[in-house]
Fold this sequence. Notes:
By secondary structure, this protein is mainly alpha-helical. The protein has helices at 21-35, 44-53, 65-82, 85-92, 96-114, 122-135, 142-157, 171-195, 236-260, 265-283, 292-317, 326-349, 360-363, 366-378, 385-395, 404-425, 445-448, 491-503. The longest helix is centred in the middle third of the chain and has 26 residues, at 292-317. The two termini are 45 Å apart.
Amino acid sequence: MHNFNAGHSLNNNWETFFPSFEESRSLYGQYFLSVDPLVHVVHRPSFDLEYSHFSFTSPHLTRNQTPFRALLLSVFFAAAVSLRASQSERLFGVRKETMVEKLKFAAETALSAANHTDFVDLQTLQALTIFLFGRCAEDIDTSHAALIEKLIHLAKLAGLHRNDEYLYLTPLEIQVRRLLWYQICSIDVHIAKNLGSQLSIRDDDFDTPLPFNINDADLNDYSATRVPRNGWTDVALTLIKFEYHLLFRQTLRQIIAVKDGTLDIKTARRLNDQHRKKIEAKYFSNSDHRPPIECYAKLASCLFAARCDVALLYRDAQVGAGLPHRNELQDAAINASLFITESAATLETAPDLGTWAWHPYFHQQYFPAIFLLMEIYRNPNLPRAERINAILDYAFGRSPGLNSREKNRDTLRLLLRKLQEDEQHQAVNYADARREPSMEAFPTTANIGFSHGESAAVPWSWQTIEDPFQMDTCSSAAHADDLMWASNDQIGSGIHQNLFESLAISQG
């Protein structure tokens, strides 16, 4: 990992870092096609204008140009990461890995130079946010955690975490600041989820309002009015992600409230379902003929909502079999988990949606797959058992031709072994988990070590996926408030204990 505080050691050799003019145009187009809808933190009209006047190779940059160079190289890096291997070889004549590594080092060096200023520049924050988002497409490790801590620190120095309505800022400046802050929050959740660590940004750390749902063309430095609109805009997919980020934070608080007895699951799920319906009404039309980007957003939206539902249901669905209504909660959790895993596979494999499938933020959903694996092994005759086994084959890269019972047993044994190895190498402290919701409550790809199933024979069809919110699953928790928690002291340890007990059945 390059040191962002290393200075300007390569500042005079930028011609070796920048792609050629033709390559730059291709990467520029790729960024706004595949990356910008997922991480919309730049105002394109302003960015286009500055790009047209920027000298790629001049070593004599002004103080204002140095951050833009970092931003541009971060844009090129993220664009390279989003390319398919065949695209890189066809367009640039080099392997994707080679191009990504070259642009990664260039972006790191440019960020190092841009960071040597006596103030926090928004373009530097944009550059680091885009760079980190691109980095998160790979396996998450502690270097990502260090980067998000650095980014959060700089963002707070710039005041992005505070309400900006009463500052003397233009609508464009307000929009960019809000987009940046919520994107940083989203990256924080993604890294914490994969590392099994605490969220770096607490609920009481910020009061920044959500960005406006408005097209870039409707904002400029001289805008006197800012009128948010409903429906699809340039920023809609990014805003949908932010909306569900807030819902996820609400769900973490609800989990603790249910444990404390101050909220019942029925009420929590009803509140979350109302939130989901408001999001859908705000961003989506009723048309059956949506462009691919809106289809992608619609499916991702339902996936996020179902993920919150599973987070609420999982703990009670795993409580001892003797408690009342357990089967109803299990059915609801299984339906939602099946929807999540099938939707994730569709986002990753459907040809029409492939433009945005490069980043795992939406389609890397291992926890629901592990939950389904445990449930189908306990009861091989579950409803939709064939669909569950098929999606497990995809999620864990298994051959579809073998006996499902044996495959599930072998996968559980591998999972248990990996978790036991992880337990031996990590001492996890859950003492404060009750007050500070932790991502450690859920198994993660980082501590399990599976890779997604690239062996799927055909893409999943999103038209055939059943919406869990149309299955009357909300009624399944009608009496969930009567349930008791299996563990009253520690959230995370209770979850891991249930997981180990479930996995142990495959050892017989």
